[in-house]
Structure formats: C-alpha cells, structure tokens
Amino acid sequence: MPEFQRPRGTRDFGPEEMAKRRYVEAKMRETAMLFGFGEVMTPTFESTDLFVARSGEGIIDELYAFEDKGKRGISLRPELTASVMRFYVNDMQNLPKPVKIFYFGNCFRYERPQAGRYREFFQFGAELIGAPSIESDAEIIALALATMKNLGLADVVVRIGHLGVLNRYIRELGISESAEKEARRLIDKRDFDNLRQVLGEAAANGEATARLIELVNLGETEAKDRARAEAKSDESFGYLANLLDRLKAYGFDNCQLDFGVARGLDYYTGMVFEIDAPSLGAEKQICGGGAYTLADLFGGQEVNSTGYAFGFDRVMLALENSGVGVPSQNIEVYILPIGEKAQITAIGILRELRNAGISADMDLMGRNMSKAMKYANSIGARKVIIIGEKELAESSVTVRDMKSGEQSQVPISDILRAFTRVDA
Ligand code: HAM
Description:
alpha+beta, 5-stranded mixed β-sheet, 15 helices, about 40% helix, elongated, binds histidyl-adenosine monophosphate
C-alpha cells in the first residue's frame, strides 16, 4: 500500500476527467457572460468571523477552521456568497447597479463524505446585487436554467419556494425560535415524521401544524393553484405567481412551486429555489439559491441580492448519468519515427503541426509499429504519421487514419496542407 493517501473527502482528477470538467466549466462561463455577468475571484480562505457573522458560532463545526501563525482565526471557504458580498461591501458598492457577478471555485466543508458529498468540492455560482427583487430573481433562475439547457441536461426538477409563505405558516404554530429553526431544518429534509414529533413536543397549535404539513406537501398543480388563488390576499403567493409568469417569458415554463424549500443556510429572506437531478439519488440537489441580505450584516448598505451556486461535481455526475456526451481530450496526430534519423524529421513535422494549432504528439519510447498503434489508440489519436527509412528516402510520410485504417503517402512538403485540407 502506498504510504500517503488523499485526505478523506478529496479527489484527484486525471487528464480525461479534467478535460471534461473544463469543457463544462467553459459552457457555464459562456452562459453567464451571455447574460451579462462578469467573473470574480476571491481568496480561498477568509477570517472565520465572516462566516460566523453570516451563520452564527454553530457554523465552526462545519468549517476547516484554524489559527494561522499570526494567531488569526482563518477558515477555508465553505461557499462563495459570503466572500463575494464582503468583496462587494469593500469595493463595489459605488458601481452602477445592478452588479452581476459569477465565480467558480473550490469550497471546503467538514462533512461526512459519501457519493456526491465531499470535503473539497467546487461551486459555479452567480450573484445579482442591487436590482429590484422580482427582476433579479427571474434573471437569476433563468440563468441557472439556461446553463442546464446549454449543457443538454434535461432531466432536472426546479422547485421554487418563498420563505415569506413558509415563515407565515410557521409563525402560526406559536413555538419558540429554536423549535422554529428545527422545524425549518426538518421541512428542508422532508422529514415529516420527525417534524410532527418536534412540533408535538414544542406544543405547537394543532390546526396550524395540519395547515403547515398540508402546505409543504402540496403537489405541483395544487401549489400553483394555491399561489394564483391567494395571489391577491398574500404578497408572497402573488410574488411567486408573478415570478412564474416572468420565467415563462424567459422560455422556462417547467418550474414547480414547492413551499417546503427552506434552504439550509440562514441568510435567505424571500424567494428560494433548488434544482434536483433525480438520477443522483440521495445527494440529488445540484443547485441551490435564493434572495438574501448580507451586505448590511457585513457593514455595507442594505441591498437586494439574489444568487445561486451549482454543485459543480454533482452536475458532472448528473451529466454522466444522463448519458449527455461531454468531449474529453483527443490528440489529433501521433507521430511514429522509426530509427534515429527519422526523429529529427519527426520533430520538424511535430513543430509544424503544433504551430498550426493541430494537437500533435510523438513517440518518445522507441516503440515498434504494433505497440505504437496500440498506444495511439489509447490516447484517442485520430491519425498516425509513420516515418520509416522508406519514407525518408522518398521525402514523404505514411498517414494512417485510425478510424478507417486507410493509409496514404503524403510528401513532407505538403503535410500541413494535407492536414488542414482533411480536417477543415
Ligand atoms: P448550498 O445549497 O449550500 O448553497 O450549496 C450549493 C450547492 O453546492 C448544493 O446544491 C450542492 O449541489 C453543492 N454542495 C454543497 N455541499 C456539497 C458537498 N459537500 N459536496 C459536493 N457538493 C456540495 C450555497 O452554497 C449558497 N452560497 C448558494 C447561493 C449563492 N445562494 C445565494 N447565492
């Protein structure tokens, strides 16, 4: 057994996996920029105080928190919203509104690792700061859905809720603040058995309990009907009905309402949403977000903000499960020089191809023909250039198409033209 293992909950990514991840990341970046969002990067670690200000002391148990050599409390970031809002308060408050930001970065949470749940994972997220809330919420959800669409991931469920609705029903229970918090956590987990027990122990009003449980269990159509029917009498229901109309105008009429979306983090204030990829089983939530206030908590002016983060690793798993093809790296040309003299010619051709932007690799191991062909296959080379004595004598090379097996002779002076012509 090797002496050193990866730390628990972390992963190594090989070249094939990295090529796929970079492709997906590029698609996400492309979509965000298409929507007018600009990229930011913030530090991997922050003062622990930032996360405590956001979520209370309890968060420390979930963090990679430590003291640095200067005795400062430092934590690896568990997500990027707090960092982005700190950055906004420090440097961006005076920018013209709205401020539209996206990011991609690694996050760290001290949790029990399992499939789709890691201690180091990646988020691709976006935040829209300083625009009225309904416009922001619609634009943010539309960006998340357009990202899924551009990736070709169709097998997803979008559930939108509103903490205004949920909190109104929870307040009617007449229970303590800590019991309310526990109730929200259990609703979020859809653990209704324990919810009933907790509400019973907290002496919650019986009728209010029944109303709450009915609300969070409303089916897809019933939830929409409820929002539309009560749109006039309840602001939050009206808000959701309006939001659905806007999303339809964006081209997304497949969103569900789910009043049980409570979101684990404590800073959300209004609309909340989640996207699930059912193929992932227990850890199926690939995206979470909503409207929140953090700027004032960090010493800035209060400002509307809304955002989301994709769990990038889960998106990769969902793409794989749904059979959506993600291209991995392929080398265009593999060059096999036979004999030492051929190597100098091979380097010349290698250089010419690479300078022309054609990915090219060359045998460095002195392989014979059959081993070289096997290797070329294993790296996904589309063509192999063979340079032997016979070819050298004729100032030409043999080009083999790895798919069809066809071979042709190409004069060395013509090689670039042959490749650009074939692949144009
Ligand atoms: P979150 O729901 O805690 O929200 O995380 C967003 C996504 O990150 C989750 O939906 C999930 O896909 C992924 N994720 C979370 N923990 C792990 C883990 N241990 N392993 C793998 N993936 C994980 C936030 O972080 C908010 N900052 C989102 C947001 C942005 N809200 C407003 N703006």
